[in-house]
Amino acid sequence: MRLLQWTILLLVAVAAPGVVLSRDPKAQVVTLSFYGLLCGLMFFIFQAPDVALSQITIGAVMLPLMIMLALTKMRRQNLRRERESKNK
Amino acid sequence: MLGHIPYFIAAWIFLWGLYGIVTSTNLVHQVVCLAVLQTSTYVLLLTIGYKLGGTAPIFADIPVGTVVVDPLVQALMLTDIVVEATVMALLLSMVVKANELAGTVDPDQLRIMTG
Amino acid sequence: MSSRTRLIFFLFPAGVLAAIFVWGCRDLPAVGDYRGPYGYVITQVTVPERHATDVVNAINYDYRGFDTLGEEFILFASVLGVLLLFRPSARIGGDRDKNGDDAQNRQVKIDDALPISDALRVTMQAFVGIMIVFGVYIATHGQLTPGGGFQGGVILASAPMVVYLSGNVWAFERIVSHPLIKLVECLGAGGYALIGMAGLLAGAHFLTNIIPLGKTGDLFSSGTIAVISVTVGLEVTGAFVLLMQTYLREIIEERLGQKS
């Protein structure tokens, strides 16, 4: 295996604990998007272009987008609950 | 032995994802760690099918018969990625519903509210 | 049990799992030394038999098309689940007024959206056309170059999001709540199964490639692979647009209610 492939494998292996150890979901969205991009680059370097396209669109764009939408919805629910309990 | 290290990297990512799920205090963090766990299967499938010196299995500009990497595991990985997005969507909607009904996204607190 | 106990209970089986995995990987060939016969057989056979140059998509939509049918219906079912979980429910104390808010929501409006910067708006408006054209290109050229239905569908589904990011909430609401989106998604999902049944009607097995195969390298080659790719693209687009609409429905209603 060549140097480029070793490098990207090591980068992915280092980025995975980075995603897990970011405990705050808002920070984790950014690290997940970066990790998805790294995985897409890995698929590209290992000669899998179809899978790389799929990973970049879904793992680096759609998945963080869905998480951010879910976080937005939950934040609004919490704010509404706080204001309602304050009104009462 | 040196050639087996990519398989061990797949196990390493799997165990980190599992560690994140076990020690999580936020349901959204757990869902993201599940996504990391699924990427370990991509690494395993990818490295199983890789052939040194092979190129991408697209014959639009190369003649049939050049050495390519295995396309069958790439088809499996495509399915895997789509299923990951699907499962995440459903899990996230369940997390949002849990927050709406229980008021918290801490799995330890959710366990207390029973009955 | 406390979290420390849970961690200790996890670390021991994790070590055992790692050891068993390392022991089980001993007999696998080293990475880069692919020996299996199936890869070689498929790459020799796909271009002459199916006139498709993208072997991965030929496997996904033709040789193993039944698995992709199941996976597409997984996507369909999960979007159905999300829509069911988030359907508007009548709260206690009354029915909904013309804005769709029930009695409790009417008083409490959350209004802390940041204004969108001009640079973002201009860039996003420039991007919408490019994304739609690129998505259609990727979805229709699945049998020739890397791409296909799934990737093209996701790119197409990001186009309404770009419209939302450019600040045009009214256009976004008109796009995503159009009843055509649900029809497109169902047509995509059902169309795949119907193409399979066309194979049955022609006297062959389910999901056989019965359309004339055309010339290798043409856009309309490889028979049902191109058609299935387009239907899958339609279904994935509809699925993700519906997901975005479900999550953003409240926010859109509020923003539009304030504007009008």
Describe the protein's architecture and organization:
The complex is a heterotrimer of chains A (88), B (115) and C (260). Chain A has helices spanning 3-21, 25-45, 49-87. With 88 residues, chain A is mostly helical. Chain A has one domain. In chain A, helix 1 runs antiparallel to helix 2. The termini of chain A are far apart. By secondary structure, chain B is an all-alpha fold. Chain B has one domain (2-112): Helix Hairpins. Chain B is 69% helix and 0% strand. Chain B has 4 helices and no strands. In chain B, helix 1 (5-22) packs antiparallel against helix 2 (27-49) and helix 2 (27-49) packs antiparallel against helix 3 (71-102). Chain B is elongated. Chain C has 260 residues and is mainly α. Chain C has a domain at 70-86 and 115-260. Chain C has 10 helices and no strands. Chain C has helices spanning 3-24, 37-50, 55-63, 65-85, 103-107, 118-140, 149-165, 169-176, 179-201, 224-259. The relative contact order of chain C is 0.14. Classes of the chains: A mainly alpha (88), B mainly alpha (115), C mainly alpha (260). Chains in contact: A-B, A-C, B-C. Chains B and C meet through helix 1, helix 2 and helix 3 of B and helix 1, helix 2, helix 3, helix 4 and helix 10 of C.
* Biggest pleated-sheet summary of chain A: none
Mean pLDDT across every amino acid position of chain A:
92
How big is the Rg of chain B? Answer: 20 Å
Q: Helicity of chain B, in percent?
A: 55-70%
Number of domains of chain A: 1
In the predicted model, the low-confidence regions of chain B spanning at least 5 consecutive residues are none
Low-confidence regions of chain A: none
Alpha-beta classification of chain A? mainly alpha
The DSSP helix count of chain B reads 4
* Number of DSSP E strands of chain A: 0
* Helical amount of chain A: over 70%
The N- to C-terminal Cα distance of chain B equals 54 Å
Strand content of chain B: under 5%
Return the CATH architecture of chain B.
Answer: Orthogonal Bundle
The SSE string of chain B, one letter per element, is: HHHH
Give the overall form of chain A: elongated
